[in-house]
Design a protein that fits this description.
Layout lengths: L6 H17 L22 E7 L3 H17 L3 E7 L4 H10 L6 E4 L2 H9 L10 H7 L2 H6 L1 E2 L2 E2 L2 E7 L2 E5 H7 L7 H14 L12 H15 L1 H8 L8 H14 L8 H5 L4 H8 L8 E3 L4 H4 L12 E5 L9 E11 L4 H10 L2 H10 L17 H7 L7 E4 L1 H4 L2 H4 L5 H11 L4 H15 L2
Parallel strand pairs: 1-2, 1-3, 10-11
Antiparallel strand pairs: 3-10, 4-5, 6-10, 7-8, 7-9
Helix pairs in contact: 1-3, 2-16, 7-8, 9-10, 9-11, 9-20, 11-21, 20-21
């Protein structure tokens, strides 16, 4: 995951990543193809380049999915280029340069809308029948712009989960809290037992936006959440400041975070997860989505249920069953027969099932059987989205990328600054509003 870097190094990395994208483009540059008749798998050939957000263990799992595709389409070669948090910058540079990849996975619907508005995306209407068969209506609607399908969520996420080290909870004599008051009290008890309550991957700013959004949805309510998502209310609104004050109850006690604020700001998300998924625990909890176990798959000796466990993000008031979710959506920049074949494959329960069985994956594909999930813990979290009383998509992912989805700027950077100084509620709200106002123009 992305860490802070000197600005010249950042621009150099962007240039290298953009060159990698340009160097592995499709061998078929027919960007206006409108093929509607799918050839038999053995007859489809070509090269497909994909830029995506998945790195480390997630990259390995996606490669397993691509290996399954290769068995069906032996004449198609797929080159996956992991860009991590830099996907918005890498794709933006590639599109501006006129040589984007064939396909990409994007975590921010706001960024997808920006690319569609620029005319950079190709519709996925050729896969509409597959999507209608396999996806719930809400997810089809999410990927629809101006009546055409431009994306679909391949990898979903329930971001309203808290993962805990079972032994740390046992040693402290605490159980899974259901309410916010119980949650903050459990954190104090864990600290008193000798184990910091929280691991925080502060080097990756998106982890802090997830925490804020979970608090905001429960504290301000879904209507305010929608208004803030659309920037029809300002980030200086009292509801934002109240949520920041509540957020400070988690990050404000630096002695209850592994290494305090200085270490947290240098800790990436995978490292933060490993601090909880170890015996003895370095931290008792990490607040993050249902994809957490997949980050340490093959790297931890802890087992689901006995070594680590999960509980829903605690209710604030009468908000049990509220879920903030996200997802990585597939989009197409170049329409080719080989690209269409991969899109239709990724829309299938077969493709999703490969990653589901590996763990760390929640599929919105309704035809993936629950039995495919590797254990009861992940099965519970992965299927919670459909059962949510109130569901909202990750707010930062709905925002323009300049505000909600780019390392080193916007909401990510401002909330990192807030982690460093959790007492600066008013200043943080003012900075958030200034950045949002500029991005939403």
């Amino acid at each position: 995951m992305t860490r802070h870097q000197p600005i010249l190094q950042t621009f150099a990395a962007i240039a290298l990543a953009s060159a990698a994208v340009a160097g592995c483009g499709s061998s078929n540059n027919n960007s206006s193809s409108t093929t509607t008749t799918q050839k038999p798998a053995a007859d489809v050939s070509g090269r497909v380049s994909v830029v995506g957000v998945w790195t480390a263990e997630e990259q390995k799992s996606f490669q397993a999915v691509l290996d399954g595709f290769k068995k069906k389409y032996p004449k198609i070669t797929v080159k996956y280029n992991p860009a991590g948090d830099n996907v918005p910058t890498v794709l933006g540079t590639a599109v501006q340069g006129g040589n984007p990849p064939d396909l990409a996975t994007i975590a921010q619907p706001g960024l997808i809308a920006e690319f569609q508005k620029k005319g950079a995306l190709k519709p996925l209407d050729f896969a509409k029948a597959d999507l209608q068969t396999n996806y719930p209506a809400d997810f089809i609607k999410l990927g629809t712009i101006a009546g055409k399908q431009y994306s679909f969520v391949f990898k979903g996420a329930n971001k309203s989960t808290v993962w805990n080290n079972v032994q740390a909870f046992t040693n402290a004599g605490v159980s899974a809290p259901k309410t916010w008051d119980e949650f903050t009290q459990a954190a104090k008890t864990l600290k008193a037992s000798g184990t910091p309550a929280f691991a925080v991957g502060g080097a990756d700013g998106w982890t802090l936006t997830d925490l804020f959004e979970n608090i905001y949805l429960r504290q301000a309510g879904p209507d305010k959440y929608d208004q803030l998502s659309q920037h029809t209310i300002k980030w200086t609104d009292a509801s934002v400041k109240d949520a920041l004050k509540t957020m400070a109850q988690v990050i404000g006690d630096q002695s209850n975070i592994v290494g305090g604020k200085s270490e947290a700001l240098q800790t990436d998300f995978p490292t933060a997860v490993s601090q909880v998924f170890v015996d003895p625990a370095k931290a008792a909890m990490i607040i993050e989505g249902d994809f957490v176990p997949g980050v340490v798959a093959g790297k931890t000796k802890l087992k689901a249920g006995t070594g680590y466990n999960v509980f829903p993000f605690p209710a604030i008031g009468s908000t049990e069953g509220f879920v903030v979710g996200g997802g990585d959506s597939l989009v197409m920049f170049k329409d080719t027969p080989a690209g269409q074949a991969l899109v239709k494959y990724l829309a299938s329960p077969e493709a999703a099932g490969i990653w589901v069985r590996r763990g760390g994956f929640s599929s919105p594909n309704k035809n993936v059987p629950e039995s495919a999930y590797p254990d009861a813990t992940t099965r519970t979290t992965a299927t919670a989205i459909a059962a949510a009383k109130t569901f909202r998509f990750d707010m930062s992912d709905l925002a323009p990328a300049a505000f909600g989805g780019t390392p080193g700027q916007g909401e990510w950077k401002i909330l990192q600054d807030f982690l460093a100084n959790p007492s600066d509620v008013n200043g943080t709200a003012t900075k958030l509003e200034a950045s949002a106002a500029k991005a939403y123009k």
